[in-house]
Amino acid sequence: MSDIPFQSIDWSKIEKTEHQGETGISFWQTLQFDGLRVRLVEYSVGYLADHWCQKGHIVHCLEGNFVSELESGEVFTLKKGMSYIVSDDLSSHRSITENGVKLLIIDGDFLKLNEL
Questions:
Q1: In this predicted structure, what is the pLDDT of residue 14?
Q2: CB distance 95 to 68 below 8 Å
Q3: Matching CATH number, 18-102, of 1.10.260.40, 2.60.40.650, 3.10.150.10, 2.60.120.10
Q4: What is the pLDDT of residue 3?
Q5: Distance between CA 14 and CA 52 in Å, rounded?
Q6: What angle do CA 80, 50, 26 make, to 5 degrees?
Q7: Residue 43 burial by CB count (10 A; 0-12/13-18/19+): exposed, middle or buried?
Q8: What pLDDT, on a 0 to 100 scale, did the predictor assign at position 61?
Q9: Domain definitions of the chain by residue range
Q10: Can you tell which superkingdom this protein's organism belongs to (predicted)?
């Protein structure tokens, strides 16, 4: 991962991309650095992810609430002000929201599972 100089981010100037869920839509605003991705993500009302994600993330809920469902059957409800952290390949998870949610999601090489 290379050094990232200080910078402020005006999210209103970052393009939104649309990603279809199994139901609903997500909108991503993405900053990509070497080995690091930072996103503002909004899930629409009735959003259900279309896949089980293996990627590690730091997820912080900015507005609304959502459920992070693990493939193991565990369910975690996160609301405004709450976060979760998981490393790559450590648990399959997907997001679900009834009423919509806005998240800050950070992922990158630093979340790779350490192999001994």
A1: 97
A2: yes
A3: 2.60.120.10
A4: 87
A5: 27
A6: 45
A7: buried
A8: 98
A9: 18-102
A10: Bacteria
CA distance 86 to 53: 11
List CB contacts of 13: < 8 A, sequence separation 6 or more: none
**Token duo for residue 13:** 């100037």
Q: Residue 45: what pLDDT?
A: 98
* DSSP-H helix ranges across 26-111: none
Are 68 and 89 spatial neighbours (Cβ–Cβ below 8 Å)?
no
pLDDT at 4: 87
- Amino acid identity of residue 30, one-letter, is T
- With a CB cutoff of 8 Å and minimum separation 6, the contacts of 52 are 71, 92, 93, 94
What pLDDT score was predicted for residue 116? Answer: 46
